[in-house]
Amino acid sequence: MENTKERNLLAIKIIAALILAVIFTSSSASAANLKVDPSVEGGYTTIQAAVDAANAGDTIFVSPGTYVENLKIDKQVRVWSDSRNPENTVVKPADPAESVVEITAERATFSGFGVGDSEKAGILLKGAKNCYINNNRVQNAEYGILLQDAESNDINGNIITLNEIGLRLEGSKSNTIQDNLIAYNYGLGVSLEESSRNIFFNNYFKNAENVEGNAVNADNSWQSTLTVKSNLIRGPYIGGNFWADLEGKGYSETCTDENSNGICDASYAITGGGSDNSPLFPKVRSGITALESKLDAEAYEQGISAREKAENETMAPVERQTEATEEKPPEAEASEENAAPAPSLAVTVLVVGAAYLMKRRK
């Protein structure tokens, strides 16, 4: 009898445990998939509407198209383009004075989009933690990607180009910046302010100035542990970064690699402080060609020309006004030429002397 009771009690405990496991599994599996497709009746027509409707853990798939909105992601969701192609799934700002995408959540994902045309940031991570920003093309913004007080995020596999500043970190720490093309930005490639313990590796840098010369650069790492694995320029090791410039005279383009391991023989000193101890060397030249095919050097040159033209047009009215002030018009010169001459010094002396004699006679 006693054994029967014990067996029944054990069975009840097992059943209760199974019920709890089912409940827990159901709760974990309750994450939903939401679809953004303006062509489907009754579906979500904007990404923001899907984000607002989503619960933490949900995934949002976005159909190809151009979405005009300032997107704010404030919860733990995954936002993926359906095509995984930034060329055909594009987000542009409804208000260009604001950032296109602003992420303030933890553990959010944003992947596969073309983003740009903002007077602020293409993608802003503000107070965000443990987010994954991957496979985006960010261009035509003041800042391509901007991190403010952001921590432990992974900025991975993005093309950041044709911005005033490619990537900027402000008060941000412990972020991983890897496998990105940060090239053909009009100003700086990377700018750091009060940011430390971030790691940069396996990136392709090609800007007029790749890294702003700040002392804080020394508080960050510019390479990972040397690992046998194909890097983004098709070399045999993951290590540091590829350092190019617009004239083909960057460090990685001119360094030596005596042992042919795809790593420059000497470290590269980062402007302002710090160093890349394993800068990449183009062991496989076709790797560079493949990366350049994803970029648009011609658009960069056109952008530079447009900026120079705008600058000249801005300065021209000021110069013309200065010239008009300095140069007298012909009418004024003719008037001066026709005016009566001033009395000579001799005439003046005679007049004064005559007045003096007349006074004495009186």
UniProtKB/TrEMBL annotation:
Compositionally biased intervals (Basic and acidic residues): 320-331
Pfam families, per the entry: NosD
Region (Disordered), start-end ranges: 306-343
Protein name per UniProt: Cell surface protein
Keyword set, alphabetical order: Repeat, Ubl conjugation pathway
Domain Periplasmic copper-binding protein NosD beta helix, residue spans: 118-248
Secretion signal span: none
Tree of life domain: Archaea
InterPro entries linked to this entry: NosD_dom, Para_beta_helix_rpt-2, PbH1, Pectin_lyas_fold, Pectin_lyase_fold/virulence, SCF-Subunits/Alg-Epimerases
